[in-house]
Amino acid sequence: MSEPEIQVVGHPLVQHKLSLIRQEQTQTQDFRRLMREISLLLAYEVTRDLPLRYEPIKTPLAQMDAPMIGADKNLVIVPIMRAGQGLLDGMLELIPTAKVGHIGLYREPTTLTVVEYYLKLPRDVEQRDMLVVDPMLASGNSAVAAVDRLKEANPKSIKFVCLLAAPEGVEYFHSIHPDVSIYTAAIDQKLDEHGYIIPGMGDAGDRLFGTK
User: Fold this and answer.
1) Which of 164, 161, 162 is nearest to 186 (CA)?
2) Residue partners of 99: CB distance under 8 A and separation at least 6
3) In a domain, 178, yes or no
4) Residue 203 · residue 180 · CB < 8 Å
């Protein structure tokens, strides 16, 4: 079996915008804008291996066979609610033909069990490649639970996209789903005793929606 794949997107624009989004003084409206911009750049990287086919077109000067992404290769993007919503708009800006699903999860405060409260997917998901998006891969519990559930829909493939990952989360995620590639802008140092990524960016959902 091949090694689980993780791609750290080191593009200077990604890294610069990630540094801005990490800063404590970054306000909600700027946090949202930066998340949208980074997600567009991450979408560029995660779709790099989409297959092309050649179709005849006519330019103002000549006929040619031009590379096109086939309609049957459209993606479905599934944000993990609620923070994953912040990555959706930028990806749709680059991939407007993608369909969108949603999965809602929360952690039960007493048992810390991940509980699903919402799931809605396109009907033809089994014909599509799936991008599961969430700003952070911390402990990996929510990401694993989401992919567990989404695999039941039998998509053609799944990739997981996040802004930040913790080494503990990456290890756990790939121990359960070694076939799912991870795309992230950075792998940070560790998790603290409360399960937050260090140095991280704080609670992405609260910062995105201004709820803290």
Assistant:
1) 164
2) 74, 75, 76, 77, 122, 124, 125, 128
3) yes
4) no
Q: What φ, ψ does residue 99 adopt, rounded to 5°?
A: -90, 165
Q: Which domain holds residue 11?
A: 6-49+74-209
Render pLDDT for 53-110 as a digit per residue (tens, 0 to 9). 899 999 999 999 999 886 545 899 999 998 999 999 999 999 888 999 999 988 776 7
The DSSP annotation for 53-106 comes to EEEEEE-SS-EEEEEE--GGG-EEEEEEETGGGGGHHHHHHH-TT-EE-EEEEE
**Whole-number Å distance between alpha carbons of 82 and 79:** 8
What CATH number does residue 115 fall under? Answer: 3.40.50.2020
190 within some domain: yes
Residue type, 183: Y
| Global pTM value | 0.90
Task: Report the domain count for the chain.
Answer: 1
Residue whose C-alpha is closest to residue 104's, from 87, 77, 131, 84: 84
How open is the CA angle 120-166-14, to the nearest 5 degrees? 80
